[in-house]
């Protein structure tokens, strides 16, 4: 949930405070993502696609935030009476969701010249 009202002008970004902090167990991390309705409702996207919060982010001022960028806004009257294109995210709006996940174990990769398999056509072919 957004922890306070935030106005984001179209073409600009903002950090939306979520009003909580977590002390995650060692070896665990949080993945913050927008809800499926976030863009349709507010015209915003999360600027880092998915936010990964590791278990060391536990300072007294380490409140979780959602970094957003406004792509679609509505005409809204500003404080000085001018029309401004943007969107309001209001305190209590459900703009994101998160999952707590175990950190992926470290793995080793082996570099090879060829896999020896049939090509499948690349991205966007299936």
TrEMBL record:
InterPro entries: dUTPase, dUTPase-like, dUTPase-like_sf, dUTPase_trimeric. Residues 1-121 form the dUTPase-like domain. The keyword Lyase does not apply. It catalyses: dUTP + H2O = dUMP + diphosphate + H(+). Gene3D superfamilies: 2.70.40.10. GO terms for molecular function: dUTP diphosphatase activity; magnesium ion binding. The keyword Hydrolase applies. Its EC number is 3.6.1.23. GO terms for biological process: dUMP biosynthetic process; dUTP catabolic process. Signal peptide: none annotated. Keywords: Hydrolase, Nucleotide metabolism. Belongs to the dUTPase family. This is dUTP diphosphatase. It comes from Clostridium perfringens.
């Amino acid at each position: 949930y957004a922890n306070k009202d935030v106005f984001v002008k179209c073409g600009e970004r903002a950090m939306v405070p979520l009003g909580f902090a977590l002390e995650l167990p060692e070896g665990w991390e949080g993945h913050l993502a927008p809800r499926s309705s976030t863009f349709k409702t507010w015209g915003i996207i999360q600027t880092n696609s998915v936010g990964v919060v590791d278990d060391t982010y536990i300072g007294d001022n380490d409140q979780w935030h959602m970094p957003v960028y406004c792509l679609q806004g509505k005409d809204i009257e500003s404080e000085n009476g001018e029309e401004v294109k943007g969107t309001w995210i209001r305190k209590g709006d459900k703009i994101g969701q998160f999952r707590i996940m175990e950190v992926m174990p470290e793995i080793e990769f082996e570099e090879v010249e060829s896999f020896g398999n049939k090509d499948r056509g690349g991205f966007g072919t299936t």
